Amino acid sequence: MTGAVVGEDGVARCPWAAAPGVMRAYHDDEWGRRVHGESAYLERLTLEAFQSGLSWATILHKRPAFREVFAGFDAEVVAGFDDADRARLMGDARIVRNRAKIEAAVTNARATLALREHGGLEQLVVGFAPERSPAPATTDEVPTTSPESLALSKELKRRGFAFVGPTTMHALLEAIGLLDPHLRGCHRRAA
């Protein structure tokens, strides 16, 4: 099925959230809803980077550990991580242990600090919100990039961020509600 699916509870959702569990809870309670504040933006940016090549369910199951080991995504703390911190993270099986992604998290925290004198991470990302969201009826119609995600990717890279490709940035724009990611027919569409 590629269109909205009615679950056992009688509610229509995007098909990947049809069954009860962590993915449904994320779909219903978080995905496509606005977030606010530097740490919320840094968390989503970091988790989207760690998700690259993996399932989102894996990241959601590991999110409590990510929040713990990355100090609640406090940019100042993460920017100060040293070699011992990186080794600690590489040894922690509760998170995704990928050296390049861990390095990117530290790099992005440092770049986030540098953005503070220019309005901050949230202001920068919000500036790339599309005027209109696509309105796909099926998952086959869901775009994986957009002109806005391409432009955001370029700007973040210019400002020293890593693991911020156009597909990852499109997923970020969806996750934080800067575009409506839900299918037509899903109860969360335009909510």
From TrEMBL:
This is DNA-3-methyladenine glycosylase I. It holds the Pfam family Adenine_glyco. InterPro entries: Adenine_glyco (IPR005019), DNA-3mA_glycosylase (IPR052891), DNA_glycosylase (IPR011257). Gene3D superfamilies: Hypothetical protein, domain 2 (1.10.340.30). Transmembrane segments: none annotated. SUPFAM superfamilies: DNA-glycosylase.
